[in-house]
Amino acid sequence: MASIGMYLGQLLKFIYDFVGNYGVAIIIFTILIRVVLLPFYVQQMGTMRKMKEISPLVEEIKKKYAKDPQKMNEEMMKLYKEKNVNPMSGCLPMLLPLIILWPLFAMLRSYPAFSTASFLWLKSLAARDPYYILPLLSGVTTYISSAMIQTDNNQKSMNLVMSAFMIWITVSLPAGVGIYWVTSNIFQIVQQYIFLRPTEPMKGESSNEGNNKNRKDS
User: Fold this and answer.
1) Average pLDDT, stretch 116-138?
2) How would you write the chain as a 3-class SS string?
3) Fewest beta carbons less than 10 Å away: which of 38, 88, 193, 218?
4) In DSSP terms, which residues pair with 69 in a beta bridge?
């Protein structure tokens, strides 16, 4: 973790030398990290799209085998195999931004420059947000990001708990970490909006489907 923090610190200092503000540098730093991790997220979005598509089938299996958990799991595995879906493949991209949090936290605490670095309403990026704006933004953006990939109504309460947890965590962390997390969430929201948009069928395809249906009816 120490070596990761050192490299992250060098990257952040390099960006700061160009922009002259550590708050802006953290935002650019976060965007660069997310761009580097983009291939992992493209894979994750593909998995999420497939999970949304098969969610009605998943619900059917849950209702059908509600009293037989073992059979339910077997049918789930069959469905995932048939549709070529691996639910666990989306876990790593979700964990990667969290992994960076600790080295960033340590870096903000150890670098004296952050204690006097100001940004917008923040007088120190190494101190907590005195107005709780970043914690609230952290919770709201976490909820929106999670809700966009929600495939099960039961996940709604989990999303609320996770959002409340992020508010609580961000309250006690340096403001610089809050800037990182909010920026990361906003990037994720835009990313999910782009990759998870429902694809509209082409006009030719829709007309062909209509013609095929008319032929069957006749």
Assistant:
1) 90
2) CHHHHHHHHHHHHHHHHHHCCHHHHHHHHHHHHHHHCHHHHHHHHHHHHHHHHHHHHHHHHHHHCCCCHHHHHHHHHHHHHHCCCCHHHHHHHHHHHHHHHHHHHHHHHHCHHHHCCCECCECCCCCCCCCCHHHHHHHHHHHHHHHHCCCCCCHHHHHHHHHHHHHHHHHCCCHHHHHHHHHHHHHHHHHHHHHCCCCCCCHHHHHHHHHHHHHHHC
3) 218
4) none
Ranges of each domain in the chain: 2-51+90-197
Give me the amino acid identity at 43. Answer: Q
Segment 9-35, tens digit of pLDDT: 788 889 989 998 999 999 999 999 888
Rg (CA), the chain: 22
Question: How far apart (Å, rounded) are the C-alpha atoms in residues 123 and 110?
Answer: 17
Residue bearing the bigger pLDDT, 56 or 105: 56
The reported pLDDT for the residue numbered 198 is: 59
Do 139 and 166 touch, CB atoms closer than 8 A? Answer: yes
Tokens of 102: 């600790």
CB 148 within 8 A of CB 192: yes
Burial (CB < 10 A; 0-12, 13-18, 19+), residue 216, is exposed
Residue 186: the pLDDT is 94
The pLDDT score that the predictor gives to residue 139 is 92
Tokens, residue 162: 């996770």
